[in-house]
Design goal:
The structure is a homodimer of 342-residue chains. By secondary structure, the first copy, chain A, is an alpha+beta fold. Helix content of chain A is 47%, strand content 19%. In chain A, strands 3, 4, 8, 9, 10 and 11 form a six-stranded antiparallel β-sheet that branches. Chain A has a three-stranded antiparallel β-sheet with strand order 5-6-7, with helices on one face. A two-stranded antiparallel sheet of chain A has the order 1-2. In chain A, α5 packs parallel to α12 and α6 packs antiparallel against α12. The longest helix of chain A is centred in the C-terminal third of the chain and has 22 residues. At the A-B interface, β5, β6, β7 and α10 of A face β5, β6, β7 and α10 of B. Chain A binds a DNA duplex (30 and 30 nucleotides) through α3.
DNA sequence: GTTAGCACTCTTTTGAGTTGAGTGCTAACA
DNA sequence: TGTTAGCACTCAACTCAAAAGAGTGCTAAC
């Protein structure tokens, strides 16, 4: 038995209706809802077939049908993309203000949440290859030096270093030249103990300062590696009764707060098939606590091999069209952003 | 009628019991619970008095009593401070690692959440008087300058500025001297249009760069003013049935995510009576959506007139002793932190 | 192939009855 | 005068059965 056109229409109608109401859909509803002009009895026959095929399930014998994961999957794969229209509005909002990256990503997460009424996440872009691009040591006041560390991809960090005595301009210059000539372009793996020892030797009495700077560099690069994640719309979870019973809601909120859990999603997503939009339905989700949810994710590129992820998490009956549209828009905005931002 | 000693004891017993169980407390329970050796009937009489005095209320005629806001208030004001013991453990954890400020505050919020099982918040320290302490312009690569801006209190921001042509070392030096001599120590209000015009004039063809730098300075100072807030333990809300019905939980989670709402708390708290620990019970809360909660807050000093806030939000029947103890500990840790951190 | 109709199933709602915790009040006691 | 025992009363919470309602599967007829 295969899915003929009529079955497809009915399946589509069931899913659409269920997306709207969240209630199991009965045969009579479909009989009136579609323009097939079939009686509820006929629909019942078809629904029995669809159930046998695994596209829909019955929560209990005398209830209507709801889509199974397979049903959603079919819907997502074949029936989507209608209303990419209202998404247009999003485009400008993000561009409106050239914010700091930090703010921009927060903004992106929020924008998606407001637009879709689901929970959303955005990870900061990060690069596989973290090398030192630029390093500057300056005198801030008598007893403090400021080390500015720029990582490939323009991630910038500052560290304040305490010194016991003030350094003169010439020393500062020498230290800067020393550091830059030896360290530029190196990744944390490439900065060997040998390099460090040699640098310290050349710095003479300023060896301890050099050591501190190098520590800071290592820490900065490492820090970049443990990921920043921005989330928004967490409390949208409460809008969907099937997610808002206490245990589930608590688990979900927890996953969003303990952002660590979300990294499973990122790992899953960062490697292959990198440029497409992925849809995880129910049990397909890499995150166990989200098996009652659907997750839509995409990667964005930020130039220089930097990439981040955006994702929307909602109930299985989420509005896939809209979510995919939103993700697409935000993705393309972020994709083009770095060109004007670096 | 006044609160005599016996009434106080009974009130204390009622509150203690209610804190533990979360259920209304009956006269028989108290009769057995305390060592007063009074029958439940006597207790009932006293409880009727306490209710008349407004310290306890009855959810409905045939239920036990629960503390009113006034009752909690009395409890907090008079009966607290017993077990500051177990709090000791916290002290070391924070000191364990000298993290970046950012990480440290996150850590502080989390620590409090884990320790108390309530929701917590920590704001980044900020200063009333935001003046420019140090400004450095450096050449990052051919087409990009890096401006490092240090605000009084060692808040550091970086901005990348795009330039069409590479600048030579001498120009860089001149610009740096120009900027520092004219801007150092000024607040954003003090940098007048006159100052800016004069600077631009002196910079000649590099006027546009100066303008961009000044913009960045203004933005940095302003950005410092819209506050960063770290939260943790949000999902602890679900542990307290009286807060975890859908509407309340949703509102609370929302308040924590839309950190903006929390600023009401900060405004309330930043001005006067600055150095004490404040306890808001129920309706006393400055945040409307938290009127079913209690909030405990304190300010911490970060040197240079910088100050931030820490707070714990939980059900009205929170363990006030423990919460106040935890807040005290974290506060004192943060108070002493800046000395070794700047 | 489609439909009407009916018996059947199962959830949800409703309401009555029961239980149990707790109170207020009164009368008696010390 | 303060304390207590006892009793009638209240009310939320629980249980249980009945009724309602939504929806199905199946059969027979069109």
């Amino acid at each position: 038995m295969e899915l003929d056109e009529r079955k497809t229409t009915i399946l589509q109608a069931i899913i659409k209706n269920y997306l709207e109401t969240g209630e199991p859909v009965g045969s009579r509803t479909i009989s009136k809802y579609t323009d097939l002009n079939l009686s509820s009895a006929t629909i019942r026959n078809e629904m029995a077939d669809l159930e046998e095929l695994g596209y829909i399930v019955q929560p209990h014998t005398s209830a209507g049908r709801i889509p199974s994961d397979k049903g959603y999957r079919f819907y997502v794969d074949t029936m989507m993309s209608e209303h990419e229209k209202e998404v247009e509005q999003l485009k400008d909002v993000l561009l409106e203000k050239e914010e700091k990256l930090d703010h921009m990503l927060k903004q992106a997460a929020k924008l998606m949440a407001v637009n879709t009424n689901y929970a959303t996440m955005v990870t900061a872009p990060r690069s596989k290859r973290n090398t030192l691009k630029f390093l500057q040591l300056s005198r801030m006041d008598e007893s403090h030096l400021l080390a500015v560390i720029v990582i490939e991809g323009n991630l910038i960090k500052n560290t304040v270093i305490e010194v016991t005595e003030s350094l003169d301009d010439e020393t500062m210059l020498k230290l800067n030249i020393l550091l830059n000539t030896h360290l530029n372009g190196l990744s944390v793996e490439e900065i060997s103990l040998g390099t460090i020892a040699s640098l310290k030797g050349q710095a003479g009495m300023y060896g301890p300062i050099i050591a501190e700077v190098i520590d800071a560099v290592a820490e900065t690069i490492k820090e970049d590696e443990d990921l920043e994640i921005y989330t928004s719309g967490t409390n949208n979870i409460f809008k969907y009764p099937e997610l808002s019973d206490n245990q589930k809601a608590s688990d979900l909120i927890n996953a969003f707060e303990e952002k660590q859990l979300l990294t499973q999603l990122i790992d899953e997503n960062s490697e292959e098939g990198s440029n497409e939009i992925k849809v995880y339905i129910g049990e397909e989700s890499p995150i166990q606590t989200m098996k009652d949810c659907s997750i839509v994710t995409a990667n964005y590129e930020f130039g220089d091999g930097m990439r981040g992820m955006i994702g929307i998490i909602g109930p299985k009956r989420m509005d896939y069209d809209k979510v995919v549209g939103t993700i697409k828009t935000i993705k393309s905005q972020l994709d083009t952003m770095y060109k004007k931002d670096n």
